[in-house]
Amino acid sequence: MIDLRSDTVTTPDEAMRDAAAAADVGDDVYGEDPTVNELEARAADRVGTEAALYVPTGTMGNQIAARVHTERGQEVLADRKSHVVKYELGGFAQHAGLQVRMLDADPRGVPTPEQIDASYVAEDLHRPGTGLLCLENTHNARGGLAIAPEKIEAAADTAHDRDVPVHVDGARIFNAATALDVPVTDLTEPVDSVMFCLSKGLGAPVGSMLAGTEEFIERARRVRKLFGGGMRQAGIIAAPGLEALENVDELSTDHEHARVLADGLAEIDGIDVQEPETNIVLVDVSGLGLDADGALERLRDENVLASAFGETTLRFCTHRSVSREELDRAVSGLAAAFD
Ligand SMILES: *Cc1c(COP(=O)(O)O)cnc(C)c1O
């Protein structure tokens, strides 16, 4: 099977397994795990923040961020198609007592300054007040779009003018920086906190990072404990995370593979391909007279796996555990599946 469902299916390589086996460890709840401490310092340095926190999942990182930035009962502004809205079980309501004000953000999934101004709610006797703006980069559900620094800056500046903090769900922020050919700090500098995943294209088996100011991370550390994310000898899993940080330069290969895949898909009559910007390819299969599940079934018969991303939409995601040779086989399989 050539598994293009997600970049989360990457498995740890030898270097990661060796690093795990050799890791210096201690009790991280006591702050005594040297490997976790090193990972947090290196991650903060990478994204240009004062501090960072190792968290079990990206979802927990986003949820902690919302809890720390807000007061119960406030509103969060987020794109209707963002991960925090679609795929986190309404966690903002459950974990932080927040109401989400969903925006039909511009086609790239970034609320415009006008939208932010129009959706902002000032606190008064009747109204809850806006407590957070949440952005996403790359934007997963809109096709792995790499959001440029200027867009992030425009949105963040508008929020900041209203004293509203800004969090970026940057699960794949290094993919964005790679695609845009900018330092990742250009994407993080305008905002107050960022989460990124080690466990996706970077290839670590587990873990994400939440980054921000010292004060923010100090509070985030308490909320991580509250949410049950305080881990003990976590150096065992943090060590592969340190290796994963070294894989950033290889993301461009995944992007090249996505373009190859998109070109192959575009050859097939009845498939409508969204031009990929990073490692995600969205296609509409309605022209084949199939729904997403029907198309996936055909693909499975050709040993290719993808994800259903809507009634008639499929998502393909390239990653470091699929070689160029396997990718080429997948492209032939696609042609055969929809012949
Ligand atoms: C995968 C993903 C997350 C969450 O990561 P998990 O580690 O799976 O919880 C958050 N945001 C986006 C955009 C993602 O793609």
From TrEMBL:
GO biological process: glycine biosynthetic process; L-threonine catabolic process
Protein name, entry field: Low specificity L-threonine aldolase
Stretches assigned to the Aromatic amino acid beta-eliminating lyase/threonine aldolase domain: 3-285
SUPFAM superfamilies per the UniProt record, alphabetical: PLP-dependent transferases
Keyword match DNA-binding: no
GO cellular component, one term: cytosol
Family: Belongs to the threonine aldolase family.
Cofactors required: pyridoxal 5'-phosphate
